[in-house]
Specification:
heterotrimer, A alpha/beta (509), B mainly alpha (336), C mainly alpha (338), A: 509 residues, alpha/beta, Rossmann fold, 3 domains, six-stranded mixed sheet, 20 strands, globular, B: 336 residues, mainly alpha, ABC transporter involved in vitamin B12 uptake, BtuC, two-stranded antiparallel ribbon, two-stranded antiparallel sheet
Chain lengths: 509, 336, 338
């Protein structure tokens, strides 16, 4: 079997950091190769080099037997390489039909546009994956899943030889994922090579013929399907055998710190009720688009709920703005620390001071430098943030350190409740367990913590209870002492939302 | 507390520009009288530039700043005339103060309109202030019917034209306001929050900063500076008109760029801005001494803007990573 | 029908219709062919430039404000050239377009080179163009221009007689505007270039990934704006029969306002030729109506400003509402009470 793509000694560094340290990888002409690796392992850099978005510093790309030192994006497209990015790269202002047909339009180099042809191209692609898409709808109005389908359809319009799917399933339901995997197999049958990039190992194991594992810019292993097991892959990806220790919260009979009753927001979530005790770590999990982030944002006042009750310390409160939430003692650590969590251009100190700035007023209402320095230094120490000075810009920090700065910002405000929304995504294993230690320490100090995550082991091992959300409702609630990770995984993918008044543990188990 | 970039380049540029102008005007430039006239002219540009710096630091721009200044002048002049029974030259101090207060309120009203559109409705700053500008220009021309209003009491003239201890009153005003302005921008909570918002609107919102009121505040402050500019202008020209000083809109933006204020927001020092204003004043005075065509000066401002943009580009100063505007980024959570 | 109700063009047309009825009720002369021909003629300069502005605004980011300065330069140069060397109207159009194209392309190069908002760069270049024009022309008004402009402006289509016994007909100027509109419409809807412009306006990153030549497209758009400014310059010279170095500068904001009115978005990616035409038409009707109603033309400026502020407010509120109703999660909505 000849290879469609062969990478020889691909190296790439940014600034002083080596993102890829000499990658050797081959993909057969109609093979399904899975590429796994933690965030920051170099996956996206590698994809961008193949797609021509980045130039390698050195190394060779062999495509269908021809050697290239680097590719330009248009070259890569013409060679039949298609990438479906996590952010889809669609045009929100154009229709589904035009979005799907655009790649082909670019390829044909026609100066005029034939609208009937556009519709035909789009219709064919939609037919191919049997997607249920309205060709005339503007893409900006579509749901995330349909946007992804549009992106997939686009990739199939041209003479595709090699399809790269970058985390393609993060927004899809189980049914949609199954269909996607079927589509991928069909494509393989048509002689298209596929590289499936994912961190969800169960999907990887379901579809891969070979699995390549990337860690810290190096290809640490290439396993055949038979050799690959979940445990083996996790070990290879992290470089260490991950042993999660379960967090045992001391049982308390205290009245709840936070009570949420029938909280609903149109098109986001419905009839959410739960409670959180002091010192408890409550897990919330579910697929992307299950409403978990929307729930968190409602509690934090970014997108307030339409109706329902929120009670903090026996006080019914209204949360209409972020200020209301902060006043009630609620903090929020977002998944997207780069745009939501941190002001990257500003220093670590300025970021830490953001929430407590009003308490740092001194003479004439001006900022009291001494109070500022004391607060900033205290929290840098407390969270062991590794910086040479508080004046270092936040953008220069590593992912783990950055997330510690976000935590410091909230802890400085002495919150009662802290919501962490996928806060450890994109952080390496060591830094991740560091963050887990901090979370546990905070819980022991009496802060109520809501830990939202799509990593099942993370919630199972850190939380005492887990809420599983699906389609905007709480589908199940489990005590972690009673379940295994696999059972929770099943619940996430399979459970139907529980009806009102149904029991605690989902009956579908 | 917070580290700030150095102004070394700006000092160097100022010295070079001074030297060039001294060489080009060997007999006239290095005279006390010339420096006196610079001290007399500089505050006008300085106040306008400060008023422009505030919204730019917050990630916006105020295209309506000159229109607001003219609006203030016209309202003040009309109030003076109305309250003094048609003889503004003999207006009492109280009437003058009330008229000026009216002018300031008019400016704040204009600022509130921009601030509301931008801070509360999230209309892009350029569009919002463009709308305010066109509206104000229309109001100005209807109020004046295209005429020049002239004849102001001495006390008002003194703001732009008077002398105290041998130094022009506007320059005293400039010194005092620059100190206060620096405290607001670099030491106050408002200033801190403005720089944060200018650096990242979304992250600031997620940190509980009241973005709406800070942005509103920034346009109010900007308009307040427009009002101060208007009073200086009234004193120096002894007249108001619907469309005075329109070309100074560019110069105000130019001063900010030159002073190291990041056009994308979030960065820039008051001291840098002051140095930039001094540089521009030296150039302007020097070129005037050479009897250059005023339109040549206009072209020159445009050219200097491009040079600064190019210089900053080459030094990589304002270069940011390309903003991601794809669908994946637009989770729809940032606004609303 | 529901789609129609969502479109800016529909409301604009409605407003224009209502205004026209109101004005006609006070002064029936409004609806006379003579008045309408006149109105179209006098707004054809703005109308032609507006098409260029539309292209820039679809591309995304901030408006180009230098096109009036470009037109000014082209007008002055062409008027002087024809005075000195003669020529014909076609040559005048060609030269003006060429000058406009070169200056516009310069803008395009600068925009491609630096990551600074278009408005900043074009404020700078417009100062340079305008300032240098004034320096070289010394601000001189040319009252007597080559007769070829007069001959061109007097060409009429149709020969009608007004109530006062004056012969009139449809001037060529609105027809040139119409041709530009059709050209713009065709380019935007039926050429790759046009779709690329919309695509870049929608998402520049996605455009690059799909292989659209982003920089080349931008260069084209700014050159196109310049070319249209050149065409508008000749039309302007023919209408006013003189070359005044500051007769066009200052109109750029009105043109931009009209294009925004017509549904262009500051976020880019949106806007149509029909909307742009209606936006200009609205300004024309208001301007004309105020005159016919005997109201000071100064009110026109207030009106334009007010309409801009109101329309951006409405569209901002709509966007906020839309965001609220956007489906984020496919909620299992059994039992949902609205």
């Amino acid at each position: 079997m000849s290879d469609f793509l062969k990478l020889v000694g691909i190296k790439k560094s940014f600034g002083g950091v080596q993102a890829l340290k000499g990658i050797e990888l081959a993909v057969g002409q109609n093979e399904i190769l899975c590429l796994v690796g933690e965030n920051g392992s170099g996956k996206s850099t590698l994809i961008k080099i193949i797609s021509g978005d980045l130039k390698p510093d050195s190394g060779e790309l062999w495509i269908s037997g021809r050697m290239y030192k680097q590719l330009r994006p248009i070259q890569s497209l013409n060679l039949g390489i298609r990438v479906i990015y996590q952010d889809f790269a669609l045009f929100p202002n154009l229709t589904v039909a035009e979005n799907i047909a655009y790649s082909q339009l670019v390829e044909t180099q026609d100066r005029l546009v034939n609208w009937r042809e556009i519709r035909e191209i789009a219709a064919r692609a939609v037919e191919l994956v049997q997607a249920d898409l309205d060709l005339n709808e503007v893409v900006g109005n579509l749901s995330v899943a349909n946007q992804q389908m549009t992106a997939i359809c686009r990739a199939l319009t041209r003479d595709t030889r090699f399809l790269i799917l970058d985390e393609p399933t993060s927004a899809l339901t189980k049914k949609e994922i199954d269909r996607l995997l079927q589509v991928v197999r069909d494509l393989q049958a048509k002689g298209i090579a596929v590289m499936f990039v994912s961190h969800k190992l169960n999907e990887v194991l379901a579809i891969a013929e070979r699995v390549a594992v990337l860690r810290d810019g190096e290809l640490v292993a290439t396993l055949d399907r038979e050799e690959a097991t979940n445990e083996r892959l996790v070990e290879l990806m992290s470089g260490t055998r991950v042993t999660y220790s379960r967090y045992e919260a001391k049982p308390s009979n205290e009245p709840p710190l936070l009570e949420v009753k029938d909280l609903s927001k149109r098109n986001c979530f419905q009839d959410i009720s739960f409670s959180l005790r002091r010192g408890e770590i409550l897990g919330i999990t579910g697929l992307l688009g299950s409403g978990r982030t929307e729930l968190a944002l409602a509690l934090f006042g970014i997108d307030p709920a339409d109706r329902g009750q929120i009670v903090v310390d026996h006080q019914p409160i209204k949360i209409r703005t972020v200020k209301d939430a902060i006043k009630a003692g609620i903090g929020y650590v977002p998944e997207d620390r780069l745009t939501q969590g941190l002001v990257l251009k500003k220093s670590v100190g300025e970021n830490i001071a953001a929430v407590i700035i009003d308490r740092l007023r001194g003479w004439l209402g001006l900022i009291d430098n001494r109070a500022w320095n004391a607060a900033v230094e205290r929290w840098i120490d407390e969270l062991a943030i590794r910086v040479t000075s508080p004046e270092v810009k936040a953008q220069t920090l590593s992912g783990g350190n950055q997330q510690r700065v976000v935590l410091a910002k909230w802890l400085a405000s002495l919150p009662k409740i802290l919501i962490l929304d996928n806060a450890t995504a994109g952080i390496d294993v060591a830094a991740k367990s560091g963050i887990h230690q901090i979370i546990r320490r905070m819980a022991r100090q009496g802060i109520g913590i809501i830990l939202i995550s799509d990593e099942i082991p993370e919630v199972v091992n850190n939380c005492s209870r887990i809420l599983i959300m699906r389609k905007g409702r709480i589908a199940a609630e489990v005590e972690t002492a009673d379940v295994t990770e696999a059972e929770v995984q099943q619940l996430v993918e399979l459970t139907e939302p529980r009806g009102k008044g149904e029991g605690m543990v989902a009956s579908s188990l | 507390m917070r580290r700030r970039s150095s102004n070394a380049t700006l000092y160097l540029v100022l010295i070079i520009v001074l030297a060039i102008m001294a060489v080009l005007n060997p007999t006239r430039f290095l005279r006390v009288r010339n420096f006196y006239s610079m001290a007399y002219q500089l505050p006008f540009l300085a106040f306008l530039a400060m008023g422009q710096m505030v919204p730019i630091v917050g990630g916006g721009i105020n295209l309506a700043i000159v229109a607001t200044a003219n609006f203030t002048g016209i309202i003040t002049a009309m109030l003076l005339r109305a309250l003094s029974g048609g003889s503004p030259l003999e207006a009492s101090t109280l009437v003058i103060l009330v008229s000026m207060l009216g002018g300031v309120l008019a400016a704040l009203l204009a600022g509130a309109l921009s601030g509301f559109l931008i801070g509360y409705l999230r209309v892009p700053d350029i569009l919002a202030t463009l709308g305010t500008m066109i509206l104000l220009n229309g109001v100005n021309i209807v109020l004046t019917k295209g005429y020049t209003l002239t004849g102001f009491p001495d006390a008002l003239i003194a703001i732009g034209n008077g002398v105290f201890l041998g130094i022009p009153i506007p320059f005293w005003l400039f010194l005092a306001i620059a100190v206060v302005f620096r405290m607001i921008m670099e030491r106050s909570v408002f200033g801190y929050q403005l720089y944060m918002i200018g650096s990242s609107y979304t992250a600031s919102r997620f940190a509980g900063i009241n973005t709406r009121s800070v942005i509103m505040g920034s346009y109010l402050l900007s308009s307040l500076f427009a009002a101060i500019t208007a009073f200086v202008m009234m004193g120096q020209l002894n007249s108001v008109k619907a469309n005075y000083a329109e070309s100074y809109l560019l110069v105000s933006v130019l001063a900010c760029f030159l002073g190291g204020v990041d056009p994308l927001g979030g960065d820039g020092r008051v001291s840098g801005l002051v140095l930039a204003v001094m540089i521009l004043q030296v150039i302007s005075t020097g070129v005037n001494l050479m009897r250059m065509d005023p339109f040549f000066i206009l072209a020159m401002w445009g050219f200097i803007v491009l040079v600064i943009i190019a210089a900053n580009h080459l030094s990589g100063r304002f270069r940011l990573q390309r903003p991601l505007r794809g669908l994946g980024q637009d989770s729809g959570l940032a606004d609303g | 029908m529901r789609k129609l109700l969502k479109q800016t063009e529909f409301y604009l047309a409605l407003v224009i219709l209502l205004l026209s009825i109101l004005i006609t009720m006070y002064n029936p002369r409004f609806l006379s062919a003579e008045n309408i021909f006149d109105l179209l003629k006098s707004f054809s300069v703005m109308g032609i430039m507006a098409v260029g502005v539309l292209f820039v605004l679809i591309l995304g980011g901030t408006p180009d404000v230098s096109f009036t300065a470009i037109a000014q330069v082209a007008e002055y140069v062409v008027v002087i050239m024809t005075l000195r060397w003669g020529g014909n109207i076609l040559l005048a159009f060609l030269t003006a377009s060429l000058i406009g194209g070169v200056l516009g392309r310069l803008n395009g190069c600068l925009v491609n080179m630096f990551r600074v908002p278009t408005i900043i760069i074009t404020i700078a270049t417009s100062n340079i163009f305008f300032g240098l024009l004034y320096v070289f022309s010394q601000g001189q008004v040319i009252y007597v221009i080559h007769p070829l402009f007069r001959r061109f402006s007097e060409i009429r289509i149709g020969n009608l007689v007004s109530q006062h016994g004056v012969y009139f007909g449809l001037s060529l100027m609105p027809l040139i505007w119409l041709v530009v509109l059709i050209l713009g419409w065709f380019v935007l809807n039926y050429t790759r270039m046009g779709r690329d412009i919309y695509a870049i306006g929608g998402s520049e990153l996605a455009a690059e990934r799909v292989g659209i030549p982003v920089r080349r497209t931008k260069l084209f758009v700014f050159t196109f704006v310049g070319v249209l400014a050149g065409i508008a310059a000749v039309v302007h010279a023919a209408i006013v029969q003189s070359a005044i170095p500051n007769s066009l500068v200052g109109q750029e904001l009105d043109v931009i306002a009209a294009v925004f009115l017509g549904g262009a978005s500051v976020f880019g990616g949106a806007g149509t030729i029909l909307g742009t035409f209606l936006g200009i038409l609205l300004l024309a009707v208001v301007n004309n109506g105020l005159t016919l109603l005997g109201v000071s033309s100064y009110w026109y400026n207030i009106f334009v400003g007010a309409v801009i502020v109101i329309s951006i407010t409405i569209s901002a509120v709509q966007r906020i509402r839309q965001k609220k109703t956007r489906v984020k999660v496919q909620v299992d909505s059994e039992g949902w009470r609205v």
